[in-house]
């Protein structure tokens, strides 16, 4: 009887210590993140000079572009000449044949070196920056040197382009 008990105990131990076979493999988890910039999801704020008497000079106001770029992505933002300008130094708002000159700037000082245009490279007049991953409000500073023009409602349309 003891032999049977001993045989049963040994059989149980042998069954419990038997190992299962295993095999392993590895695999990669991947993603490719590409840079992107979005300048139109959040609408731009107009540069609105409001109602002004014809005697006003150096009328300043500002609008804003809203830009979201991938973190660390270098970008430039260019502004075109508008619908009535032949270059960035001749931007004009129109009311029929009447034209009111104005200028757009990258800095609140509104100096000659702050004119915002579309020239890239040496002597360029675009705005440069680096993405943060969040939407950033970029001010667009405007100035009308003189309102000494026929009364009326004047308008121009500027196209902003982000390059990244």
Characteristic terms for this protein:
164 residues, three-stranded antiparallel beta sheet, Immunoglobulin-like, rod-shaped, 32% strand, mainly beta, single chain, four-stranded antiparallel beta sheet
Structure description:
With 164 residues, this protein is mainly β. It has one domain: Immunoglobulin-like (Sandwich), CATH 2.60.40.1090. The chain has 1 helix and 9 strands. The strands form 3 sheets. Strands 1-2-8-6 form a 4-stranded antiparallel β-sheet, with no helix packed on it. Strands 7-3-9 form a 3-stranded antiparallel β-sheet, with no helix packed on it. The longest helix has 15 residues, at 2-16. It is rod-shaped and about 120 Å long. The relative contact order is 0.25.
Please outline the helices and strands.
Blueprint (H helix, E strand, L loop, with lengths): L1 H15 L20 E2 L18 E13 L4 E6 L12 E4 L2 E4 L1 E3 L21 E4 L4 E12 L13 E4 L1
Antiparallel strand pairs: 1-2, 2-8, 3-7, 3-9, 4-5, 6-8
Keywords: Signal
Protein name: Spore coat U domain-containing protein
Pfam family, one: SCPU
């Amino acid at each position: 009887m003891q032999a049977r008990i001993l045989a049963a105990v040994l059989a149980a131990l042998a069954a419990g210590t038997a190992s299962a076979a295993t095999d392993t493999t590895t695999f990669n988890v991947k993603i490719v993140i590409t840079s992107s910039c979005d300048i139109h999801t959040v609408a731009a704020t107009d540069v609105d000079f409001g109602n002004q008497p014809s005697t006003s000079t150096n009328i300043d106001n500002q609008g804003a572009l809203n830009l979201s770029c991938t973190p660390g992505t270098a970008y430039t933002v260019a502004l075109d000449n508008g619908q009535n300008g032949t270059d960035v130094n001749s931007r004009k708002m129109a009311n029929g044949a009447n034209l009111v000159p104005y200028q757009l700037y990258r800095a609140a000082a509104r100096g000659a070196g702050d004119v915002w245009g579309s020239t890239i490279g040496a002597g360029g007049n675009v705005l440069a920056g680096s993405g943060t991953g969040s939407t950033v409000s970029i001010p667009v500073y405007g100035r009308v040197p003189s309102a000494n023009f026929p009364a009326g409602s004047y308008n121009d349309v500027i196209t902003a382009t982000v390059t990244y």
